[in-house]
């Protein structure tokens, strides 16, 4: 069951094609956790160079996907509506398996700490139930209302 589709996601985070990596949100508990999906297709532009004849999703883009999903979780809380969340740090990143075209990335993110507009989430990306990547991400939410400034 989809809780949010791509159009709803774009109302929350500023990322757009070609750098929006979230297809839909499966589950959402604002202020606590989120589960979302990224369908990895051969049409992704990065596969042309990473790597010809051996397409592999770059690890940094898996981290970016997890950060975008964390942003949705953070920005769905009442205190951060219409704000922008930024990735402030990456700790304990581990890459356990390659992500290839045709894979479906299922990402789960859980808030573990928050103080004011700064916090930490634990994120895991799985393919076929097996962990492909895990990381601890720090986020910082802009305190000004950036969405209305547009």
UniProtKB/TrEMBL annotation:
Compartments where located? Cytoplasm
Q: Please give the GO cellular component terms listed in this UniProt entry.
A: cytoplasm; membrane
Question: What Enzyme Commission number(s) appear in the record?
Answer: 4.2.1.59
SUPFAM superfamilies the record matches: Thioesterase/thiol ester dehydrase-isomerase
Q: What class of enzyme is it?
A: lyase
Q: Does the keyword Lipid biosynthesis apply?
A: yes
The answer to whether keyword Lyase applies is: yes
Gene Ontology MF term list = (3R)-hydroxyacyl-[acyl-carrier-protein] dehydratase activity
Catalytic positions are 50
* Family to which the UniProt record says this protein belongs: Belongs to the thioester dehydratase family. FabZ subfamily.
What this protein is called in its record is 3-hydroxyacyl-[acyl-carrier-protein] dehydratase FabZ
- Organism annotation: Ligilactobacillus aviarius
């Amino acid at each position: 069951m989809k809780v949010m589709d791509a159009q709803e996601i774009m109302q929350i985070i500023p990322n757009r094609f070609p750098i929006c990596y979230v297809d839909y949100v499966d589950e959402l508990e604002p202020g606590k956790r989120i589960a979302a999906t990224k369908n990895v297709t051969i049409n992704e532009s990065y596969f042309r160079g990473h790597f010809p004849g051996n397409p592999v999703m770059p690890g940094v883009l898996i981290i970016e996907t997890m950060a975008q999903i964390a942003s949705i979780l953070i920005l769905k809380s009442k205190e951060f509506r219409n704000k922008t969340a930024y990735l402030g740090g990456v700790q304990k990143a581990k890459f356990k398996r390659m992500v290839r075209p045709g894979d479906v990335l299922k990402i789960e993110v859980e808030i573990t700490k928050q103080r004011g507009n700064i916090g930490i989430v634990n994120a895991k990306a799985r393919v076929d139930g097996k962990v492909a990547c895990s990381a601890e991400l720090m986020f910082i939410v802009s305190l000004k209302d950036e969405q209305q400034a547009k």
